Amino acid sequence: PIHGNYHGYYAKRPSPHLSDTRLRLLPAGTFTNATVLDVGCNEGWVTCEIAQVYGAAKVVGVDIDESLVEAAWRRRRAVWSLQAPPTTSTTTLHPTEPRAAAEPNISDSPPKKKRKRTVPKNTPTTQAPVPPATQQHDADPVPDLPARAYFPASCLHEFGPQPIPPSIKGEVQGERGSGRGKTAFPHNVSFRAADWTATDIPEDKAGYDVIVVFSLTKWIHLHALDTGLTAFFQKLHRVLRPGGTLVLEPQPWESYTKARRMSPTLKENYSKLLLRPEGFGEVLREVGFAGPVRMGCGGEGGEYFLALLASVGFG
């Protein structure tokens, strides 16, 4: 994977089944009603989470590896199959709370013993028992969205992913109803296979409110050198709408050492690099971004922690 196109990458990250820690570092509302581009989306884990959890109106994931893009489409369907079904009830269940949660016992006295109720054999029941809802341990930042792990993963393994119904015009994300609007998950997320550094995709023409680039700059840098990475930053600025946000996670320089061993070309290019990740902020400002602002550390693969940068673009 000389382009960083690792298969099973997100399954190897810390707590792969929970929310991505890097997204939680961002200010609340970063993705709300936004058009988002995820460059180097891999198998679509982050792309789907932004579309499902953070209230984005439209999310496009792009990756150079066609097989990863195919896996991302499968991920989209799998995630949708496990979320809570839409409801028209006036009572909304917070996704972090179990359904019909019992009130805590605040009495100091010990609870009374309950008598066992004897039920004769072969007695027909008038109502089937209702299984308790699966409690979600990962808090979703948008309370009105469906619980992400409503159904256990065993349902997916036993019954397979469920078919996605067509979208319904007029419904919006988070609205009580069928959950089938154009901006409701999974209809608000799509994927494309392309080398985005060298090729435009149709969605680029309208531009984006937020662009996410996680763990990709090292590979662009090693393949395209300093000039190619600068050109990549320039393209990001060109397709970002005025006032939009670039979320950038650059890999540290120490990680380049291992990557250069993957091919003679990368090893040769490594020796030609003058720009260092700690200098990316200055390049971004020269390109036309305001900032960047260091948001914190998210970590990659559990091996080391990386800085997360956010830049605000202007026309």
Question: How would you characterize the overall build of this protein?
Answer:
By secondary structure, the chain is α/β, with parallel strands linked by helices. It has a domain at 10-72 and 193-313: Vaccinia Virus protein VP39 (Rossmann fold), CATH 3.40.50.150. It is 25% helix and 16% strand. It is built from eight helices and seven strands. The protein has helices at residues 21-24, 45-53, 66-82, 153-159, 217-239, 256-259, 264-270, 280-287; strands spanning 35-39, 58-63, 189-193, 208-214, 240-249, 289-297, 307-313. Strands 3-2-1-4-5-7-6 form a seven-stranded mixed beta sheet, with helices on both faces. Helix 2 links the parallel strand 1 (35-39) and strand 2. The radius of gyration is 23 Å and the shape is globular. Residues 88-112, 122-146, 173-177 and 301-308 have low confidence and may be disordered. Residues 20-315 form the Bin3-type SAM domain. Keywords: Methyltransferase, S-adenosyl-L-methionine, Transferase. This is RNA methyltransferase.
List keywords for this structure.
315 residues, Rossmann fold
Summarize the structure.
With 315 residues, the chain is α/β, with parallel strands linked by helices. Helices cover 25% and strands 16% of the residues. It has a domain at 10-72 and 193-313: 3-Layer(aba) Sandwich (Rossmann fold).
What is the strand and helix layout of this fold?
Blueprint: H1 21-24, E1 35-39, H2 45-53, E2 58-63, H3 66-82, H4 153-159, E3 189-193, E4 208-214, H5 217-239, E5 240-249, H6 256-259, H7 264-270, H8 280-287, E6 289-297, E7 307-313
Parallel strand pairs: 1-2, 1-4, 2-3, 4-5
Antiparallel strand pairs: 5-7, 6-7
Helix pairs in contact: 5-7
Keywords: Methyltransferase, S-adenosyl-L-methionine, Transferase
Pfam families: Bin3, Methyltransf_25
GO molecular function: O-methyltransferase activity; RNA methyltransferase activity; snRNA binding
